[in-house]
């Protein structure tokens, strides 16, 4: 009878299935439709490198790579990354070509409190990984980094570190 059949129906799925590769590892997740990528990375996957700053896509503290493109994870719905490859700051160490970039941030003092640093590194890493960095002028580098704000004003060291990575080729 219909009422009895209704009692035996499976409950509705409480979320969207998402298959995503994060830092090289395949992940299968069930996410709320309103969940943002930043929250899923931090709260469900324990990847706390990306930071919540403005939460409205302005500061760049939450930047991760989605299919190689720097992306504000605070604005990105987790369901949007189904089938994508996501790289967070924790995943940069797996790329040998990015070690020098991170060392240059240390050597040049490209940070003070460090809150913006993961986002700065991820955006800079996208320039290295795409090969774009090696054709950029100093002014181009500053322009590409405009989406990453630093409240401590460590911009000189940040830009100098990226220039060093470019010079190292
Ligand atoms: S926290 Fe995402 S851009 Fe500021
Ligand atoms: S180092 Fe503090 S916000 Fe950039």
TrEMBL record:
GO molecular function list: 2 iron, 2 sulfur cluster binding; metal ion binding; oxidoreductase activity, acting on the aldehyde or oxo group of donors
The protein's annotated pathway: Alkaloid degradation; nicotine degradation
PROSITE patterns named among the record's database cross-references: 2FE2S_FER_1 (PS00197), 2FE2S_FER_2 (PS51085)
Keyword Iron belongs to the record: yes
CDD domains: fer2
Domain 2Fe-2S ferredoxin-type: 16-92
Top-level lineage group: Bacteria
Keyword Metal-binding among UniProt keywords: yes
Assigned keywords, A-Z: 2Fe-2S, Iron, Iron-sulfur, Metal-binding, Oxidoreductase
InterPro entries assigned to the protein according to its UniProt record, in alphabetical order: 2Fe-2S-bd (IPR002888), 2Fe-2S-bd_dom_sf (IPR036884), 2Fe-2S_ferredoxin-like_sf (IPR036010), 2Fe-2S_ferredoxin-type (IPR001041), 2Fe2S_fd_BS (IPR006058), Aldehyde_Oxdr_Iron-Sulfur (IPR052914), Beta-grasp_dom_sf (IPR012675)
Protein name according to UniProt: (2Fe-2S)-binding protein
Originating organism: Amycolatopsis eburnea
């Amino acid at each position: 009878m219909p009422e009895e059949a209704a009692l035996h129906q499976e409950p509705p799925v409480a979320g969207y299935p998402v298959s995503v590769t994060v830092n090289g590892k395949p992940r299968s997740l069930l996410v709320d439709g309103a969940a943002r990528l930043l929250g899923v990375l931090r709260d469900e996957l324990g990847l706390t490198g990306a930071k919540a700053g403005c939460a409205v896509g302005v500061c760049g503290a939450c930047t991760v790579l989605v299919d190689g493109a720097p992306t504000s994870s605070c604005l990105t719905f987790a369901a949007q990354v189904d089938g994508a490859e996501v790289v967070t700051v924790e995943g940069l160490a797996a790329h040998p070509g990015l070690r020098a970039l991170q060392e240059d941030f240390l050597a040049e003092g490209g940070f003070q409190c460090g809150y913006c640093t993961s986002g700065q590194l991820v955006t800079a890493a996208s320039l290295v990984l795409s090969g774009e960095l090696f054709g950029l002028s100093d002014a181009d580098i500053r322009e590409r980094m405009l989406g990453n704000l630093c409240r401590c004003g460590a911009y000189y060291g940040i830009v100098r570190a990226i220039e060093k990575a470019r010079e190292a080729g």
